[in-house]
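User: Predict the structure for this protein chain, please.
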Amino acid sequence: MDPVRNPYSPGAGRKPAALVGRDDALQTWAIALKRAELGRTDQPFVLYGLRGVGKTVLLSEFRRNALKKDWIVAQIEAGSGKPLRELLGEALYAPLADLARPSSGKRLLKALKTAVSFKTSYDTTGTWTFGLDLSGTPGGGADTGILDTDLKKLIHDLADAAEEEGVGLAILVDEAQDLAVDELVTLCTIAHAAAQDNWPALFAFAGLPSLPRILAEAKSYAERFQYSRIHQIDQSVVAEALTIPAAHEDASWDDDAVDVVVAASGRYPYFIQQYGQETWNAAPGSTITARDAEIGVLQGNNQLDSGFFRVRWDRATPSEQQYLRAMAADGDDGSSSGEIATRLGKKPKSIGPVRAALISKGLVFAPEHGVVAFTVPGMAAFIGRQIEL
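Assistant: Here is the predicted structure, written as structure tokens:
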């Protein structure tokens, strides 16, 4: 079929043409938005799961839904090498600039001045004016250099301004497990304060399966946050991820073709999009057959091996690749650190630095003490296909 009309879109964080199987999370977020506007703030949302399950897509949908209600929204991605101060400051500039106007209310003007001071806390060469004279306006003080103090002042004043505007403030953090410890502690503290005092502010974090443990270690009360493990798409609706986009382009899938792609994908959203895209391109007619799907899966596997899996494999050093090979013997279910050491013929302590490096690179995570697992599904099978040199 016409590749220009292909409705499937594999890619990190790209919204699929049909976002299925996430209704519960979206409904919970929608309720939280309404509650916050009534002064009834909920605890932070935490989305966690393997890579490829659609956490970033869901977090971005949270952002879109808040923007539809004219909220002040900042979405950031940790692990980019920039500190939390800069990430949040720059993410907030555009929404605040859009709100700034000569007729702004007192609380909004105060928040703008506080944002200006926050900017100077990480960038002494740049200034924000928002096109307004804020010299006689109360506010500021978010430039002490103490992260907890500055960020709490900024978010409190922004939430106050949002309330004046009849909306709320949403702070969304992707790859939250990559935040520095002090940054994570600060966000937990502020989010907890916002919920306690009913600021019209909502927080949402997304990250790997280790994120709940990391949050709880940062602050014990983080155990009371709202946790949602994001799994594969439920069997009852997974077919819709393929059939709905096709129907919008006047095409259809045979049931057998759907079964082929669903089985190959393991119901992981990223893989569904990859196989769907390749199957569409392979299909000669407007009805996709099982044969088309089989070709699409083969071509999709080639794409995944040369991209999705390959970029991760190539980031590992030779010694790290040996460690990953030792893990692959257990499939995707996780491996005992002691067993890995035995397979490598080394003492557990001696391979600790390799394990730590792989966790830092986001290639593995520790679901529990003494256990490691791959952060992406299918990685063990990919490693099994690699010739050991």
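The first strand starts at residue 45 and ends at 48.
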